[in-house]
Amino acid sequence: MSKSSNIPIDAVITWVDGEDPVHMTKMSKALKGMARKHIPGAEKTRFGNANELQYSILSILTFAPFVRYIFIVTDEQTPAIDEIVQEYFPQRWKDIRIIDHRELFRDHLEYLPTFNSRSIEAMLWKIKDISEHFFFLSDDMFLIRPTKPTDFFVADQPVMRGTWLLRPVLRNIWNQLRTYYHHQLVSNKSFQPKPSFHVGQWNAAHLLGFQSRYFFSSHTPHTVKKSLVENYFNENPEILINQIKHPFRHNDQFNCAAFYYHLSINNGNKEFAKPSFVFLHPFGRKNGYIDRKLKKAEENSNAIFMNIQSLELCTADEQQQIIQWMKGNLSLTE
């Protein structure tokens, strides 16, 4: 089978401005008087915004020019991206489309508003006019080197980046013990373990029949074959409902990237690849951390993606250093 790929490919970026007054009002109502720290997934940094979105978009337009449309998924918000896109890619401005949560949840409006990325990502396949093959990422993920279509899809199959791991037995046992303690011994029925990145991926694998190991994916763009997901949820609507009913991230939910990958594996997909990314969590780090990470990104020619978490918590100088690096990497500096 040919390894070439000339199929239409779209990109989806999920984005929120946590400081938007309308968003904050919705959040306050959803919290029902509880402090954010008591609700997993409601941490303020999950909704932070340091204008990363515009660089995520520019990185796709620069390093993946084959992408047909870029869909920005929001909740009644309009990101300030027009000016910078018009400046550097005026011919692509029409290819960027804003998609509201109400479009995704049009058949399930009772579950809005949602502040849960796991719920939102479970509905991306419902974007009108999205291509059969697409990849999704959050606004803190970036492309940092030229890519080609076969970095995402090979011969109609999604490229799955990650590694195989054994099921998280000890973590699950610990979560069960903690839940029993809170629910049965101290009558804290609202307690749930903090949703784990690993457990969420195992939940996806186990749901789809995997027993002893799971394919663990990292913080990179994730590929999806729409028809595969659509058919599964049409045949199993209760699984979709159980996923999207939580307004905040819940330990019972599955990680959507892992769900899409294990569904694809069950369908015969064997297009595995290394993660090929550089991860930065620069807030509160010692001097030299950012320099080392950026140097790694420059020197590792196999790294084609970058994830920068909680940039809004960093100092102005740290933010400026990273933004200037991204501008230089995108050849946007004057």
Which key phrases capture this entry?
about 325 residues; 5-stranded mixed β-sheet; single chain; 3-stranded mixed β-sheet; alpha/beta; 12 helices
Could you give a short description of this structure?
The protein is built from 12 helices and 14 strands.
Gap between N and C termini, in Å?
A: 45 Å
Write down the secondary-structure element order.
EHHEHEHHEEEEEEHHEEHHHEEHEH
Radius of gyration: 20 Å
The mean pLDDT is: 92
| Percent range of helical residues | 25-40%
Strands, total number: 14
| Structural class category | alpha/beta
Mass-distribution shape: globular
Please give the order of strands in the largest beta sheet. Answer: 3-2-1-4-11
Low-confidence stretches: none
Number of helices: 12
Taken as a percent bin, the fraction of beta residues is 15-25%
What about the largest sheet?
A: 5 strands, mixed
Can you put this structure into words, describing what you see?
With 334 residues, this protein is of the alpha/beta class. The chain is built from 12 helices and 14 strands. The protein has a 5-stranded mixed sheet. Strands 5-14-13 form a 3-stranded mixed sheet. A two-stranded antiparallel sheet has the order 6-7. Helix 11 links the parallel strand 13 and strand 14. 38% of the residues are buried.
Topology:
Layout: E1 9-14, H1 21-31, H2 52-63, E2 70-74, H3 82-88, E3 96-100, H4 101-104, H5 117-121, E4 133-138, E5 141-143, E6 153-154, E7 157-158, E8 160-161, E9 163-166, H6 169-185, H7 197-207, E10 213-216, E11 222-225, H8 226-235, H9 237-244, H10 256-266, E12 272-273, E13 277-280, H11 289-299, E14 305-308, H12 316-329
Parallel strand pairs: 1-2, 1-4, 2-3, 8-12, 13-14
Antiparallel strand pairs: 4-11, 5-14, 6-7, 9-10
Helix pairs in contact: 7-10, 8-9
